[in-house]
């Protein structure tokens, strides 16, 4: 007899990244140039001062990190929150470093889900981890459709009070992956009002909050902390996807529960990663540089896509959400582009509401974006 394993593993389609890696391998095998707009993993180097901070912090003896991370890191994060959002958070009670946003998002339902309130909501389309986190924690996933006609904001009035009363948590993400949409402050005010009235947790996933075009977007914590945690990441802000570093901040009751739960499954990141994170959260100049790089790529891609008559959304994050030409589906257009080694993700990979769109992550370098534009089918 072989162990039966968790049936969820058979039910879930292959994770996005796995599929994208396979597609990339196939494109590379063609021997022709590959323009990979698939996974949101930028190719610009991690700033030298961050790499140096890591190197300088590698100890002779490497011991277990604490559960809550170093006090230096929690203070650096609180400094960032003060500079960026004019927020004053207590580094001891209201901030918890984590090994990237993905890890934190996956663990949050494990502590937030109450058996009498099985419903957990997440946007459609969305980053796939929300649904999977809910399912692995034993919750009942429910989607909040995000549509172009509502500027990719959920209709919170469409959920009944009875449903909110059976809800443990809601995932929210602005600037949004995959649509690049932003949210006005009243969206978060309303969501947080509902959370307090009905007693559920709101998790605002904000890894793109520093990658904006134009005015900096607000952070959800500026609207309130009670019943709310925000999840931030250095992956995109500082070009540190490989470091695995982020933080959760907000309601101290949730932070305490997460800290206690973490003792069961792990510890904070390696001390040298935490030292690199201190350097990254303490500096804003490198982020300004990165915004300029993404703006240049956006200009090249936007002008081409609009020239060939495609409608494109996305003001934040580093994604372009492109409506496919008439007569195409997300999959057929992605396949047509793949014939030219232009790799994109069909919108349906992010949920049923993604039908009719493709997502471009502006991760290739600027010259590569220019080459992709030249190779784009008319
Ligand atoms: C919306 C969203 N949340 C979280 C993550 C994961 O970030 P991290 O690299 O910090 O785990 C991503 C990564 O693409 C994302 O798009």
Structure characterization notes:
It is a single chain. Helix content is 40%, strand content 15%. It is an alpha/beta fold and 378 residues long. Strands 2-8-7-6-5-3-4 form a 7-stranded mixed β-sheet, with helices on both faces. It has a 4-stranded antiparallel β-sheet with strand order 9-10-13-12. Strands 1-11 form a two-stranded parallel sheet. Pyridoxal-5'-phosphate (PLP) binds next to helix 5.
Number of helices: 14
Structural class based on helices, strands and sheet pairing:
alpha/beta
Distance between the termini: 56 Å
Strand content: 15-25%
- What is the H/E string? HHEHHEHEHEHEHEEHEHHHEEHEEEH
CATH-assigned fold name of the largest domain: Aspartate Aminotransferase, domain 2
Query: Going across the major beta sheet, what is the strand order?
Result: 2-8-7-6-5-3-4
Apparent shape: globular
Count all strands and give the number: 13
Q: For this structure, what is the CATH class of the largest domain? A: Alpha Beta
